[in-house]
Amino acid sequence: MTKELEFIDLSVSTGEKSLLFKARGALRAGELVAVVGRSGSGKTLLTKAIIGLLPQSLQTEGQILLDGQRLDQLTDKAMDAVRGRRISMLFQQPKRVMNPRLTIRAHLLEAIGARGWNQAREHEDQVLSMLEEVGLSPAADVASKRPDQLSGGMAQRAMLAIALAADPEFILADEPTSSLDSILKSEVLQLLRRKQLERGVGVLFITHDIATVQHIADRVVVVSDGQIVDHCPTAQIFSKDRHAKTRELVEAALPAQREPRTEGSECLLESVAASKNYTRRAKGPAALKPTTLRLHSGQVLGVVGRSGSGKSTFARLLAGLEKPTTGQIINQHQPENATRVQIIAQEPYSSFDPRLSLRTSLSAAVHRLPESQASERIARAMVQVGLSEDLLDRTPGQCSGGQLQRMAIARALLTEPQVLICDESTSALDSVAQRHILDLLLELREKMGLSLVVISHDMEVIRYVSDDVAVFFEGELVEHRPLADFLSKARHQHSKELVAALDLTAAIATSG
């Protein structure tokens, strides 16, 4: 008999406000079901409600059944026997949920249920085998490390090994690839799918990106505003007669359709053999090796690379937030007129003071102007980013991620920059909000003549916005080419891997 995890009329509320309303569905062993939707749609609430990890301030109604057994009626102690053993969880940021004081070996032994020194020795071969199974080697070396000593991709693989350790029947995966670069995302997805098929595990995969799961999911469930609005086999999700919210997610995953802009004649910023070394007396490995690159008027430069490749260091040098160890950044190609550069941070919530109103935060950028002129410039910036001035009287916590990211762009526009540097500025957003922000940036480029430097580990973002692509690898600029040439004739091995991680078949665009 096929094992089944089922939820019936599952609702979550806080006070009188409904967060999840009468969700119904089932997950069978051996299948992978994707739950997709925008940020705040209720996807994660559904997952935590199933496994019983919701905060006590939330009220839950409905039935949760595992092979007919009512999980919602179990005590906390009884649920502890279910979590990890029958139902495992894959978290979005594994380093935050792992114990930073324990080694990966200790985490695996705990998941297996091994207690004491003798049992640890007896299960050593099993620990090493599980790490090798998820592609972590040398396994003995990885087992002895703490979570903070692993890269993002290694930590996610280790989390998968922990989730599989007790041989569970089901895995709930909550956006496990959202913080990974394109190559690691592809690797982890393929690994998860392979292990799911080999072991016959049922996987509920939470994501905001339909394109991520189109080749691995058996079925897709679409959640919007706390309700399941669509449910069908994956092959049907791209047809034109689906629910409006489904089409919105699909359209946000479409590949770029615009033509790259030709290079302008005016050079605004130039990096001439600029490098950065943060080690004492610059004796250690450089964070950024000597880099030569030019940014022209109206150009969109996509900067891509894995975590630690030197992308953000390069951005800080261009913005003047750091001084190069060697070489120079030239931002003054006209006498007495330096190029005005602004940088937009990755995480919008951390770039605003949570105690201050947004009006106060934006006013700080134009505090030297007369009050009437400053107010006029703030009002104009709000119009440019498509926000109501009413939002200025809110605090950051009272805004959505998309609203706050637009507010960060509005603040950057207050100084009337010529260059905007967007350092992973859409990575915290769902795919729909991300597309809206990217379209806004491109619109501002057209209307205001801005040049954009878009830094991302997501090749879909780079493909959508870029005229030219700069690839960084291990602190070095290894490739700099027009987008079309890069996608069709990548030269460096890392560039080829980035392109290979993309879905270039245009299956979404031509379906339906």
**How many angstroms does the end-to-end distance come to?**
36 Å
Please state the structural category. Answer: alpha/beta
The CATH homologous superfamily of the largest domain: P-loop containing nucleotide triphosphate hydrolases
- Largest sheet strand order: 6-7-8-3-9-10
Largest sheet: 6 strands, mixed
Shape: globular
- On the 0 to 100 scale, the average pLDDT is 86
- The CATH architecture assignment of the largest domain turns out to be 3-Layer(aba) Sandwich
| Gyration radius, in Å | 25 Å
Total tally of structural domains: 4
Set out the fold topology.
Elements: E1 4-14, E2 17-28, E3 32-36, H1 43-51, E4 59-66, E5 69-70, H2 76-80, E6 87-90, H3 94-97, H4 104-112, H5 116-122, H6 124-133, H7 139-143, H8 152-164, E7 170-174, H9 182-199, E8 202-207, H10 210-213, E9 219-224, E10 227-233, H11 244-252, E11 267-276, E12 288-296, E13 300-304, H12 311-319, E14 326-330, E15 341-344, H13 358-363, H14 371-384, H15 401-413, E16 419-423, H16 431-448, E17 451-456, H17 459-465, E18 468-473, E19 476-482, H18 483-489, H19 493-500, H20 507-510
Parallel strand pairs: 3-8, 3-9, 6-7, 7-8, 13-17, 13-18, 15-16, 16-17
Antiparallel strand pairs: 1-2, 1-4, 4-5, 9-10, 11-12, 11-14, 18-19
Helix pairs in contact: 4-8, 8-9, 11-16, 14-15, 15-16
List its traits.
single chain; alpha/beta; Rossmann fold; 4 domains; 6-stranded mixed β-sheet; 20 helices; globular; disordered C terminus
